[in-house]
Amino acid sequence: MAKSIIGLDIGANNVKAVELVEGGKELIIKHVGFAEIEAIPDLTNDEDRHKALIKAIKAALPQSGLKTKRVVTALSGKAVINRTISLPRGPVTRLAREDVKKMIIAEIEAEIPFPVEDAAVDFYISDDLATLKEEKVRVAVAVVPKTEVDKNIALMNELGLEQEAIDVVPFALRRGLSALKPRLNVEITGVIDLGAATTEVVIAKGLDLLFTRNVPLGGNLLTRVIQDILNLDYAKAENAKKKEGLPPTVAPQFERIATEIRNSLSYFQLQEHKKIDLAFVCGGGGKLREVLRFLKEKIDIPLEIANALENIKSEIKNIPADLLTDIAPFLITAIGLAMKARKNEKRFNFLPEELRQEGVSLKGYYVGAGLATVSMIIILYLLLTFKIKQKENNIADLKKALSNLQYVVDKTQESAQTLAEVTRLEGMLKDIFIITPPFAQIVDELIVSMPATVWLRELAVTGEIAERAAINAKVKKSKIDSALPPNLLLEIVGLSTKTAGVANFMLELKKWPHFTAAELSGAKLTDLGTEQGVSWSIKCKLLNPLADKDKKPEVKK
């Protein structure tokens, strides 16, 4: 990293900026900037937040003293997905990058919490292909919403900054972790980034990220508890939290955060059967008084407050050393972003290709005629050599293309088989329809048949009355109907003021095609208040109630 780069960490409540340059084998810090975003919880709309954000970034990046305007930013939050997956070595190494991205989306599509078409995907191969013997490779994957990428680019353009890359916070934390002094006998390390809105839990082995989790709880939760209990405005409650650390009033709320952190660390150890040797606490929560003691009571893993500057040479003159040490826990993400530009650093970059800076400045110069002639001869020689090499490369590319073609043919055959099966199932669905008994029509016929002196009390149908699915639409409807149970038994219980009313009702029923063999199964006198009446029961058969319900039955004369 011969060039100077700024890592710009934009959090929920503040902005951190770190300018780094690589001097030989050591990192040199040239600038540190820190600014709070003004009263964020009290802002009511995006426009107010945007203005406060612009003001804070400008405060963290003074107009003079910086050696560069080139920045690396990062995206974070629960919408950002980080995974390490295994894919077949052949396709990953042979296919074009965009085709590999399609394979990745197919692998993790179920985990993407927003429409796939709105997703930006980036990846890099974690394994060393030169020494790898397995047929599968580990691929580090990050997925973010395209809208968040667009907003980040627009913000940097508005500030007049030149973007080197757009990373994701968990990988910036992992990279910043590598800047800390190595500990003896430590293989797997973790980072607990206690932010204002969320808490990031990251576990790494060397430069390989093993596990990440975004916990949607942070320091703002504690501030709101203090605000409610002490009846303070947000700004005063925030100051009280910073001065008092973790008073008893907020301890139960912080215990929620500590429990989520402990569960995340325990889940990794149980699933991977690996022990976390040491975890670093950073972020704004890392500065709270008593936070380390409280976490140690809840988490059975060695913990330290991260001093992100402990292994970096400082050339900062305008910030006292004790203040620099005090804000060091804030800076690990920003340092990790600035380190992203180091040569051969494995990294994500969601900045569109056409917007990436080449970092090469072209300067005009004059060349003498003799030098120009020699240069032309050298160029011709190199061109001929290049042509020969190009033919060799073309042959190698052709072999790769043939291999890729076989892969595509295999996938096409699989797709054809799947399509044939889908077509077969669709054909079956078209041949399925439902026949429903026309009970509504039967009730209408009962009502029409009922004299004014008759009241119905109860109807009961016995027999097979469920809807039936008819399969194979080629069979005629009439055949399907005739194959169904032809008769059902209907029992009608009612009252009438006159005996003749019952007889008339039975005569009317016989006129309709759905009713037959109607007979009086029971009758007795009953008191209807001012007069005598009859309580009775009629039983009859229903003829083929599954007949075509669209056909209106003919009334018998």
Question: Can you offer a commentary on this structure?
Answer:
The protein has 557 residues and is an alpha/beta fold. Among the domains are: 1-80 and 143-179 and 308-357, Nucleotidyltransferase, domain 5 (2-Layer Sandwich), CATH 3.30.420; 181-306, Nucleotidyltransferase, domain 5; 437-465 and 484-543, Ribosomal protein S6/Translation elongation factor EF1B (Alpha-Beta Plaits, 2-Layer Sandwich), CATH 3.30.70.60. The chain is 38% helix and 27% strand. It has 15 helices and 20 strands. The chain has helices at 46-60, 89-94, 97-108, 146-159, 169-177, 219-230, 234-244, 251-272, 291-298, 321-327, 332-338, 369-430, 439-449, 477-482, 499-509; strands spanning 5-10, 14-23, 26-36, 70-75, 81-88, 119-125, 136-145, 162-168, 188-194, 199-205, 208-215, 278-282, 303-305, 313-314, 432-435, 454-462, 468-471, 487-496, 515-527, 532-543. Strands 8-4-1-2-3-14 form a six-stranded mixed β-sheet. Strands 11-10-9-12-13 form a five-stranded mixed β-sheet, with helices on both faces. A four-stranded antiparallel β-sheet has the order 16-18-20-19. The longest helix is centred in the last third of the chain and has 62 residues, at 369-430. Mean pLDDT is 79; it is low at 358-373, 478-484 and 548-553.
